[in-house]
Design goal:
Length: 270
């Protein structure tokens, strides 16, 4: 397999990557045949996976614009993946020129491509770090350069927590990040769940098995378990809901049934 110029030498391009699979679902070009093969296997069980990812991205854009309307001009996007059209820095900086955005990911391809996309953008940066180690993120040079933790920040954890197993204490990591944020900060979150998927859970579990096979377990938490991530936050209306139902700009009934899979919400620190 020929290695494209955008793929760092340090990565094994024969192993599927969650961020490149996500890129494929969104119609991106920064993925390999091994990623596309895994995605197609997952879609054999849940053919609407691309619709879920599109709904996820649409929610993120609405939530970022909401944050800007609330006066927030700093964004910390953890588990950001490979930047595609309409990513959080484009939305934030279009709505609020001068907004600062820091992307965080542990995938070398996501980091390398983010660096390329952000070249020359003084208000945005990228950090190679892992959500499970919040202090490494908070102490990074880019966060110190671009984020003033004494002012409100919008923390984006979009489609990332379902890749963190309970044994790695995702609730502890989210709480540690919350404690570092100033009052008035926002948590913007989406999470996969069997609830809302227009399929029997047994069939949807086939997709979960695909991710398990590529050593990136997909943890399908219940609505109650997802709500626990918002402890210490006041939920913004309409609360924790399916993605199309969070402050929609178009009629939710026009959405694809798969778009209602999982949950999305925004919380505000007191």
């Amino acid at each position: 397999m020929e290695r494209p110029a955008w793929a760092p030498r340090s990565i094994d391009i024969s192993v599927p990557s969650v961020s490149r699979i996500y890129d494929y679902y969104l119609g991106g070009s920064h993925n390999f045949e091994v990623d596309r093969d895994a995605a197609r296997k997952a879609m054999e069980f849940m053919p609407g996976l691309p619709k879920i990812m599109q709904a996820n991205r649409a929610f993120m854009r609405r939530a970022v614009r909401f944050a800007v309307d609330e006066g927030i001009d700093q964004f910390l996007d953890i588990g950001s993946g490979i930047p595609t059209f309409g990513n959080s820095h484009e939305v934030a900086q279009a709505a609020r020129p001068g907004a600062h955005v820091v992307y965080v990911d542990h995938d070398p391809v996501a980091v390398a491509h983010s660096e390329a996309v952000l070249a020359g953008n003084e208000g945005a940066g990228v950090v190679a770090a892992d959500l499970r180690k919040p202090q490494e993120i908070l102490a990074s040079a880019e966060v110190e350069r671009l984020i003033d933790l004494n002012r409100p920040v919008a923390l984006l954890l979009v489609a990332i927590l379902h890749f963190v197993e309970d044994e790695d204490d995702p609730y502890g990591a989210v709480a540690e990040l919350r404690e570092a944020l100033a009052p008035g900060s926002l948590l913007i979150l989406t999470h996969a769940s069997y609830e809302g998927i227009p399929l029997p859970a047994e069939r949807a579990a086939g997709t979960v098995d695909v991710y398990k096979d590529i050593r990136n377990p997909l943890i399908m938490r219940s609505r109650d378990d997802i709500a626990r991530f918002f402890e210490g936050y006041d939920m913004v209306e309409p609360g924790l809901v399916s993605m199309p139902h969070w402050r929609p700009e178009t009629a939710p009934e026009d959405e694809d049934p798969y778009a209602f899979s999982g949950f999305a919400g925004v919380g505000r620190t007191a």
